[in-house]
Amino acid sequence: MRKTDLLTLHYPPSQIMARREEVRRELLRQSPHLSGGRITRIFQSDLKLLFELYDRFFFRNYFRDHFTGQLRFSLSTRMTKSAGMTLYPRNLDKLSPQEERYELRISAVLLFNYERLERDKVVNGINTRDSLEALQLVFEHELCHLIELHCFKESSCRQERFQSLAFNLFGHTESCHRLPLMSEIATAKYGLSIGDQVSFQAEGKTFLGFICRINRRATVMVPDARGIYRDRAGKRYSKYYVPLSLLKKS
Ligand SMILES: [Zn+2]
């Protein structure tokens, strides 16, 4: 198995499903942290294991046997929109194979929020049954970035080359996820949207303001004569990060 062979791997749909199931079964068997399809905790070591399983079941152990660079895995609690990301040095094209280094980063937030809305959760064009399957699909997308970067030193999931690779390897028909985002959860669970007037309690006082962003918490702008934020009309505000459950619509 040579590097360029990675680009010619092609599995029919039934094989893809069977291999994806093998990866899932082995991951659940070997990980001390994961016990079912619902992810409530996860560690870097689980991502490393997931990688080794994909290498074994999809890439014929190319990475174990031939890849000489460095691979790291991380989980982010700050990625609230992107589900995954592959990081690499800017001068990748000038590095020797031994100097290549990549980091696959997965959003823990999106995995933990998976169950919070009851609706279809399509990832890369495939409807997922639980957060573990969503993790696999997000991870597969990043694996395609990794392969493209490794082979061509550049990668874009908007380009045809990437899309063919993702389709041939994993049957992906899209390059995006429709996992619940905090803003959607806020609307569904708390009736809160960006722009809403809200109140909340802090330091024994009641504050009134409006929501300007929703991530893990809502960003609330509160009129404040000494605030450091100023709108076009010259009105000043202070910014507060407030858990959604503590906000009252006013
Ligand atoms: Zn991408």
Low-confidence stretches: none
Principal-axis shape equals: elongated
**Structural class estimated from helices and strands:** alpha+beta
Give the cofactors and ligands: zinc ion
Average of pLDDT: 96
Assembly category = single chain
Distance between the termini: 63 Å
How many DSSP-defined strands? 11
Rounded to an integer, what's the Rg over CA atoms?
Answer: 22 Å
Strand order, main sheet: write it out. Answer: 9-10-8-7-6-11
Overall tally of structural domains: 2
What is the helix content?
A: 25-40%
Profile the largest sheet. 6 strands, antiparallel
Q: How many helices?
A: 7
β-strand percent reads 15-25%
Element-level helix/strand string: HHHEEEHEEHHHEEEEEE
What does this structure look like?
This protein is of the alpha+beta class. It has two domains: 3-180, no CATH class; 183-249, Roll (SH3 type barrels), CATH 2.30.30. Helices cover 34% and strands 22% of the residues. It has helices at residues 13-30, 44-58, 62-66, 108-112, 131-152, 160-170, 182-190; strands at residues 70-76, 84-87, 101-107, 122-123, 126-127, 197-202, 205-214, 218-223, 229-230, 236-242, 248-249. Strands 9-10-8-7-6-11 form a six-stranded antiparallel beta sheet. Strands 1-3-2 form a three-stranded mixed beta sheet. Strands 4-5 form a two-stranded antiparallel ribbon. Helix 1 runs antiparallel to helix 2 and helix 5 packs across helix 6. The longest helix has 22 residues, at 131-152. The radius of gyration is 22 Å and the shape is elongated. Bound molecules: zinc ion. The site of zinc ion (ZN) has 4 residues, from helix 5.
